[in-house]
Specification:
Shape of chain B: globular
CATH topology of the largest domain in chain A: MetI-like fold
Helix content of chain B: 40-55%
CATH class of the largest domain in chain A: Mainly Alpha
Structural class of chain A: mainly alpha
Number of helices of chain B: 19
Largest interface: A-B, 33 and 32 residues
CATH class of the largest domain in chain B: Alpha Beta
Number of helices of chain A: 12
Helix content of chain A: over 70%
Order of helices and strands of chain A: HEEHHHHHHHHHHH
Mean pLDDT of chain A: 91
Strand content of chain B: 5-15%
Number of strands of chain B: 9
Number of domains of chain B: 2
Order of helices and strands of chain B: HEHEHEHHHEHHEHHHEHEEHHHHEHHH
CATH superfamily of the largest domain in chain A: MetI-like
Shape of chain A: globular
Oligomer: heterodimer
Distance between the termini of chain B: 87 Å
């Protein structure tokens, strides 16, 4: 008995030793800040005067904060623009590049924006969107269309940012869907061929259902990341024009680092976490009805 | 023999390292956070290395901070590790003073009998706490805004140079005559006017004798007809008269646009003089004071100052004070500010110094003592907001983008924003009784 316990202890110690450094890292740089921010969300904090407990006042203020309300609506609009478009584009690209000649080169080209700096992407696209000298309006002009003031018109700023986001992310998701496509057993396609199915029927009854796990993963990540869009918006529009691109992450940033209301910023962050958690939880709950894992 | 040589080398190496470490330890290091350009930082560090460090043993090193400057300052303060000295524009001073982040200088000034009489009153006024009247900073960097014009383009077009007193109408007439499609492709490639200045929203109303807020920032004056007229004129420059490119080109620094030689007039800060000299414009250029709007007779010259302050939590306030006196000196103005930053002097003795005009053979000819004297004499603080207005007022003011982007005319926007902002101002701590 003692020998067995000693052995178990030795195994445990060995295991914990291997993960000790990473565990310490997570505890110090993730767990502690998360707990600290939760406590901070119930405080009013000033860099000089320190903190003061104020209960739920920060959370009550969020409910009355129309700037946060605008940011929340913008986030929903942004989700509506980017999630379906990103999904369709990624699937189309994955199918297009699944078996064509030169697919390695094309995959590399489409994937490369995913590894570029988001700030560099934002700066380049800001120039592309320039209403007088940008390439996009110049090309539109050649086909007789007068392009809008993409980043200075509040009606077009969010669509402009969304186009950039979809473009930047499509390569990454294309690779994910490619992996999903490659995971579909050939036998299904062979059977469909034998049965005389059209390409559209093959896509609808075989490819799409078999891709649902990947689609589920895409939607889960998309629902989470949509609330944390910051860098492209910050560089391209700064939340303008006329608050049309202000997003929850920007509200947190400005509250924390411009207004130095760390407690309020922490409260907004926890509200965003709660929203994300609820959406993801519901998504997981209903996923069983439409996600097909069978072979 | 070989072993002895190696041992001797090691001994000397160790001795040398030790003495270097000792000397480094004996020399105090003061780090100055700054957004200055590399050539400006180089000039400043050379000054301190030459004149200050040998006398005091204090080494001054600048640390470039490009973006999110104040966020970095506050983060260091919050961490209990503030910079001993901070540099910023005077418009942000009150926020730091109100939060108790700065050390007043009055005790140092009294102890050392530091003479403030040489400073222009406007340079000191910016650095006093609004509640306690104490002096929190010293400045050797006064900036202002004026017009730069491409004299070559004016000469080619046979037009007179802009010269104060000139009106909006005169300015517009010149801008229209100098806005052209030079290559016949249907696109304008020579613009009459550009401004890369975010403060255009304040400057154009200022030229018409009006401001966006009252001095105490307790009332928003956007619904003043003079302000509305100025902002409408600002919008019309781009969209009605088409003498200015769209606001997005502000992302390209206006200095670079002006340097391209395709812009006839540029409204920008005094710092562009140094930049244009440094880059060597391939055309003749000169300067002019701002034009006057139709509703005023007074000259408008918006000034602002940048300076140094000492943090309340400074580790070595004496070293900081010593360095600050060197920074605020006439010699620093002569050796650094005039050479690299083309700032306006904050001291009378510096304005009278011959070194202030030490490039008579370099453009622009218009930068005379009389020109600078007018800028200092008639300068008034640009109405940058001395308080952090908060997210709601900022969000409301961002509706002025509708004017900049030609979505709506100025009048309905200004009236709506003025009403909203005035309601919000009543909730602000400096307004609430």
């Amino acid at each position: 008995m003692n020998l067995r316990l000693n052995r178990r202890w030795r195994d445990n110690i060995a295991g914990y030793s291997f993960i000790a450094i990473n565990l310490a890292w997570v505890l110090i740089f993730t767990f502690y800040p998360v707990c600290r921010s939760f406590i901070l969300s119930f405080q009013e904090w000033n860099p000089i005067e320190g903190s003061k407990f104020i209960g739920l006042d920060n959370y009550k203020e969020i409910l009355q904060d129309w700037v946060f309300g605008i940011a929340f609506k913008n986030a929903l609009y942004y989700a509506l623009l980017t999630i379906p478009a990103g999904l369709v584009l990624a699937i189309v690209l994955a199918i297009a590049l699944h078996r064509i000649k030169g697919r390695t080169l094309f995959r590399t080209l489409y994937f490369s924006p995913s590894i570029c700096s988001s700030v560099a992407i934002a700066i380049i696209w800001t120039w592309l969107y320039n209403s007088q000298y940008g390439l996009i309006n110049d090309l539109l002009g050649h086909v007789g269309i007068k392009g809008p003031g993409w980043l200075i018109d509040p009606r077009w700023a969010m669509p402009a940012v969304s186009i950039t986001v979809v473009w930047a992310g499509c390569g990454y998701w294309m690779v994910m869907f490619l992996a999903g496509l490659q995971d579909i057993p050939e036998v299904y396609y062979d059977a469909a061929k034998v049965d005389g199915a059209t390409s559209l029927q093959v896509f609808r009854f075989i490819t799409l259902p078999m891709l649902t796990p990947t689609i589920f993963f895409y939607l889960t990540m998309a629902f989470i990341t949509v609330w944390y869009q910051f860098d492209l918006v910050y560089v391209m529009t700064g939340g303008g024009p006329v608050n049309s691109t202000i997003m929850p992450a920007l509200v947190i940033y400005e509250a924390a680092f411009r207004d130095f209301r760390m407690g309020y910023a922490a409260a907004v962050a926890w509200v965003m976490f709660a929203i994300t958690f609820i959406i993801t939880f519901l998504h997981f709950k209903i996923s069983g009805r439409w996600t097909f894992y069978g072979r | 023999m070989k072993k002895r040589l190696i041992s001797l080398f090691l001994v000397f190496f160790l001795l040398g390292s030790f003495s270097f470490a000792l000397s480094a330890e004996n020399e105090k290091l003061l780090t100055i956070p700054s957004w200055w350009a590399p050539h400006e930082i180089k000039g400043a560090e050379e000054f301190f290395d030459k004149y200050f460090t040998p006398k005091t043993g204090i080494r001054v090193k600048y640390e470039y901070i490009g973006e999110a400057f104040h966020e970095k300052m506050w983060t260091r303060i919050a961490a209990g590790n503030p910079y001993d000295i901070m540099t910023f524009n005077a418009d942000t001073l009150q926020e730091y003073v109100d939060k108790g982040a700065l050390m007043p200088l009055d005790d140092f000034i009294k102890r050392d009998k530091y003479d403030l009489r040489d400073f222009f009153p406007i340079a000191l006024e910016h650095w006093r706490g609004r509640k306690d009247g104490k002096l929190y900073g010293l400045s050797n960097d006064m900036g202002s805004f004026h017009f730069y014009y491409n004299a070559t383009l004016f000469k080619s077009a046979g037009l007179p140079f802009p010269k104060y007193p000139w009106s909006w109408d005169k300015f517009l007439s010149l801008a229209q005559k100098l806005t052209r499609d030079t290559n016949g492709d249907g696109k304008i490639d020579q613009w009459g006017y550009i401004s890369g200045v975010d403060w255009c929203r304040d400057i154009w109303p200022g030229t018409n004798g009006a401001f966006l807020f009252n001095k105490e920032v307790t009332k928003c004056l956007l619904d003043d007809p003079k302000v509305i007229k100025a902002l409408q004129f600002w919008q019309d420059l781009t969209y009605k008269y088409k003498v200015a490119p769209s606001p997005e080109l502000i992302q390209l620094t206006s200095g670079d646009a002006f340097l391209s030689g395709n812009v006839a007039m540029m409204l920008d800060g005094t710092w562009q003089v140094g930049y244009l000299r440094d880059k060597g414009a391939k055309f003749e250029w000169d300067v002019a004071l701002l034009p006057k709007g139709p509703d005023t007779n007074r000259i408008y010259i918006p000034n602002f100052t940048a300076g140094w302050v000492i943090s309340k939590g400074a580790k070595d306030p004496e070293a900081a004070w010593a360095a600050m006196k060197a920074y605020a000196s006439k010699e620093f103005a002569e050796e650094v500010m005039f050479r690299t930053l083309s700032s306006l002097p904050t001291r009378r003795s510096a304005l009278l110094s011959k070194k202030f005009y030490q490039w008579p053979e370099r453009p622009p000819k218009g930068l005379t003592g009389e020109f600078y004297g007018q800028m200092i004499k008639f300068g008034e603080p640009i109405h940058q907001y001395p308080y952090n207005l908060g997210p709601k007022i900022r969000a409301s003011l961002s509706k002025l983008d509708l004017i900049a982007s030609n979505q709506k005319p100025a009048e309905p926007v200004c009236k709506e924003v003025a009403k909203e902002v005035n309601e919000l101002l009543e909730t602000m701590p400096w307004v609430k009784k």
